[in-house]
Design brief:
Blueprint: H1 2-9, E1 14-19, E2 25-32, H2 35-48, E3 54-63, H3 66-76, E4 81-84, H4 88-96, E5 100-102, H5 105-109
Parallel strand pairs: 2-3, 3-4, 4-5
Antiparallel strand pairs: 1-2
Helix pairs in contact: 2-3
């Protein structure tokens, strides 16, 4: 069991972007929220954030630490973005920084 957890942290992150029919951009991150994932998500946030509403879906993130959150925050400043997350650290920091947080993608898109 411990070996499986260690292998999980070696998993690569995946960032996917799509746009809904109403023009809402969605950037979804899966895997560990590491520097590489944040850099890729940041590029996608910049690209999608220029037109309309933006949702950052972090429901698939299974590992996050303080430094990851600090790297993510500059990409969220001065944007109308809704972050979807249930990870306690992401929710706590997001709410403390005044970021619009939701626990489900459906709630973020409503």
């Amino acid at each position: 069991m411990l070996r499986d957890r260690r292998l999980a942290f070696l998993a690569m992150s995946e960032v996917r972007t799509f746009r809904l029919a109403d023009g809402t951009g969605v950037v979804a991150v899966r895997g560990p929220l590491d520097a590489a994932a944040i850099a890729e998500a940041g590029v996608e946030i910049e690209r999608c954030g220029s037109g309309g509403r933006l949702v950052l879906d972090l429901l698939g993130v299974f590992h996050v630490d303080d430094s990851s959150v600090e790297l993510l925050l500059p990409h969220l400043r001065d944007r109308t973005v809704t972050v979807v997350a249930t990870h306690k650290l992401l929710v706590r920091v997001g709410l403390a920084r005044g970021i619009r947080m939701r626990r489900t993608l459906a709630a973020a898109l409503a």
